[in-house]
Amino acid sequence: MLTTQQxxxxxxxxxxxxxxxxxxxxxxxxxxxxLYGPARVQGLREFAVRxxxxx
Length: 55
Description:
With 55 residues, the chain is mainly α.
């Protein structure tokens, strides 16, 4: 099982390689879940806004 930090790192990698992919509903839901989960990750909110997971 990946940690929140590892998952966020993977999402950032996807954004670098295929930016359109992080805007898909499943990955936006994953991003939102990370954002509102118990762990706080630096840069996650900005990523969520940038990719459309939150307004």
